[in-house]
Amino acid sequence: MNDSALQTLLQQLTFNEDGLIPAIAQQHNTGEVLMMAWMNEESIRETLNNNRVCYWSRSRQKLWRKGESSGQEQTLKGFRLDCDKDTILLAVDQIGAACHTGRRTCFYQVVDGDELLTDSEPLIDPAVLYGK
Amino acid sequence: MNDSALQTLLQQLTFNEDGLIPAIAQQHNTGEVLMMAWMNEESIRETLNNNRVCYWSRSRQKLWRKGESSGQEQTLKGFRLDCDKDTILLAVDQIGAACHTGRRTCFYQVVDGDELLTDSEPLIDPAVLYGK
Asked: Over the stretch A35-65, which tens digit does the pLDDT of each residue have?
């Protein structure tokens, strides 16, 4: 995407009071919803320029190049906006585990009757992912 | 879900400063991501009690029983939380159009090269949906 087109796109988006917009990551070929995180202008610019997904980490207050410490990168396959242009849907190709717990998806807790169950196990030990 | 289990669930969730939590709606049998909206405690309670999805409308500042004016209801098929318990993933069965534009999904705008294209058309005229 050229700079001028990117600028036009960014100007259309509705960011919240912190300059952020929610982004849902979906595995492009299976439809699995992997995670939801936040992007700012800079992370959107970087993601569209590099085709590697970059979020904004609210806890660390810095760019979060997905996989930079864990190796579990997300390649961008598609970038969609909703009707109000206040939510992004990313089609991604996720290497390994999207979740910091080592699971494929962050959405591994499910309401089952009166209980909240965990229905998937880590693919990778987080201690290995983060070299702890 | 019984009242005590529901209360336990609600106490585990991380709501934002407005008492809201983002909820992604995904069509249960196709994987299509339909929309993202917000829930508060009351809307979560109502959704889990009735198996009909109810959001919190930030613009109208009231419960938003999806489909109550348009007829385009969402039946709840599954309720998931992410690792941080600050995002909900709803598996739903969507009648007709999830989007207020009359489209199946809200995510109908896609970056294609330097352009933002619309790649689906309304299933239903919004004027019919909302009786205007």
From this structure: 999 999 999 999 999 999 999 999 999 999 9
Is the predicted ipTM greater than 0.90, yes or no? yes
Contact status of A57 with chain B (Cβ, < 8 Å)? no
CB pairs under 8 A between A and B: 105
> Which residue has tokens 């960014």?
A10
Report yes or no: A13 and A6 within 8 Å, Cβ to Cβ.
no
Give start and end residues of each alpha helix (H) in A13-132.
41-50, 126-129
Distance between CA atoms of residues A86 and A80, nearest Å: 11
pTM of model > 0.95: yes
Question: Do B111 and A80 count as a contact with CB atoms less than 8 A apart?
Answer: yes
Contact residues, chain B, for A48 at CB < 8 Å: 111
Backbone phi and psi for residue A108, each to the nearest 5 degrees, phi listed first = -105, 5
